[in-house]
Amino acid sequence: MTTQQAEQHSERNNVGIRPWAEVEEAHRALAAVGEGTTQQTQLSRGALTGYLWALGRGDVAPVTGAAVTGAPDLSLLTAETDAAAVQLEDATQRTVPRDYIQGVYAALAWICGHSEQRP
């Protein structure tokens, strides 16, 4: 983590409703399970991408592709979760594989407090 990232994170203790450290741990645990691209599924790739974006390490939102600088706030996280839900419900709206979107949705829904099940 760079000094700038550390300063940003010290000002912000949560990602969505979850403590920053808890989201970091969720990302690390999922990444460890899927070490190497041959072990990853579309579902786990989606969840990992959702975690990285929520932590401010992605250039664009994983479903909508919206450009965001730094970690998104709860309203942006919720909007991206809603966009994922729309794509899950309507195949004509889907731009990437369903399992990938399901992974993004699961990670962001957990971060936003819409689910207690951590991917």
Q: Explain this structure to me?
A:
The chain has helices spanning about 5-10, 20-35, 40-55, 75-90, 100-110; strands spanning about 15, 20. With about 120 residues, it is mainly α. A hairpin with a 2-residue loop joins strand 1 (about 15) and strand 2 (about 20). The longest helix is centred in the last third of the chain and has 16 residues, at about 75-90. The radius of gyration is 14 Å and the shape is globular. The model is unreliable at about 1-10 (pLDDT under 50).
- Beta percentage is under 5%
- Tell me the structural class: mainly alpha
**Number of H/I helices:** 5
Distance between the termini: 23 Å
The tally of beta strands, per DSSP, is 2
**Element-level helix/strand string:** HEEHHHH
The coarse silhouette is globular
Give the % helix: 55-70%
- Mean pLDDT, rounded to whole units? 87
Low-confidence stretches: 1-11
| Major sheet size, sense and barrel closure | 2 strands, antiparallel
Radius of gyration: 14 Å
Largest beta sheet: strand ordering? 1-2
Search tags:
mainly alpha, globular, single chain, two-stranded antiparallel sheet, 2 strands, 119 residues, disordered N terminus, 5 helices
